[in-house]
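Design a sequence for this backbone.
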């Protein structure tokens, strides 16, 4: 058995010396900016002055000594860094590393500290999705999310993958995610490379280079990702939420058959950077944005 003896911060000689020096500097600066008080201080400190004058001077010094420094001294030591304030997170789950891959977990830990980068209008839409998920879970109903964009090759695939990963990060088990498009193209290999840079393991399905298995968890099965229309037989036909992740799909699909809830969370298409020098940077930026916002959704859906 070990014991720990804590010395109160105020009883530390080093702390008192540090605060004395700060108070003296603050006092000099304060008096430098106030000529009348400077004259009063010099007069009050003279031995020939009455005791009450010197008492007032001492009170002024103690105010500067014990005032602003006291509130900070209770929480921080000299030289320590203030923690960054984060909006809306519910904390990092203790068992996250046992569900998501370790590299993905570290990536999401970083995204958790970026919730303050989400614009207010986007937060409003994301919180609508969080509320839908929370209401379904409260009534013990299965949660089905279908992410929809035009070609189901980039943004909707990222939405599906990161929603599943964020649910695993928070150990939410009753959520199933899907994706689809208004047309069929192919799962873009640039998305696969960006995901692998984020810690995922992505491999092509045997016999089809356009289909990928994306491993996001140590204990949950991988996601089989391929381009398909939103009404594909693998996708739900009723009691699901349609998450529109591009403006084009949102405009051309005013009604998604079978959807009981619909929300628009559009993202800029990273395809605009294809074959450019900043291609990888653009894909990684969109990848991080979708990861951050799906993590925000699941953090508020618990």
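Sequence:
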């Amino acid at each position: 058995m070990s014991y720990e003896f804590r010395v109160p911060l105020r009883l530390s000689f080093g702390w008192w010396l540090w605060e004395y020096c700060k108070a003296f500097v603050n006092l000099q600066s304060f008096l430098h900016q106030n000529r009348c008080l400077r004259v009063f201080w010099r007069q009050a400190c003279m031995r020939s002055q009455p005791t009450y004058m010197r008492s007032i001077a001492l009170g002024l010094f103690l105010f500067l000594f014990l005032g602003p420094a006291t509130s900070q001294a209770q929480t921080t030591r000299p030289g320590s860094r203030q923690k960054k304030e984060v909006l809306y997170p519910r904390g990092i789950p203790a068992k996250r590393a046992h569900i998501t891959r370790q590299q993905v977990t570290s990536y999401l830990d970083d995204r958790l500290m970026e919730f303050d980068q989400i614009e207010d209008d986007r937060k409003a839409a994301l919180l609508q999705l969080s509320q839908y998920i929370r209401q379904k879970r409260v009534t013990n109903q299965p949660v089905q999310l279908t992410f929809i964009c035009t070609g189901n090759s980039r943004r909707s695939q990222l939405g599906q993958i990161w929603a599943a990963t964020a649910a695993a990060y928070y150990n939410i088990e009753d959520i199933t995610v899907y994706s689809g498009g208004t047309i069929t193209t192919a799962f873009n290999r640039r998305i696969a490379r960006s995901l692998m840079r984020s810690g995922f393991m992505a491999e092509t399905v045997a016999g089809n280079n356009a289909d990928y298995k994306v491993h996001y968890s140590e204990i949950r099965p991988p996601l089989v990702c391929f381009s398909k229309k939103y009404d594909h037989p693998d996708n739900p036909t009723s009691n699901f939420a349609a998450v529109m992740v591009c403006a084009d799909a949102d405009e051309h699909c005013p009604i998604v058959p079978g959807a009981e809830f619909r929300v628009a969370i559009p993202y800029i298409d990273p395809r605009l950077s294809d074959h450019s020098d900043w291609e990888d940077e653009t894909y990684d930026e969109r990848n991080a944005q979708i990861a951050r916002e799906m993590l925000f959704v699941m953090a508020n859906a618990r």
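Residues 252 and 294 are 24 Å apart (CA to CA).
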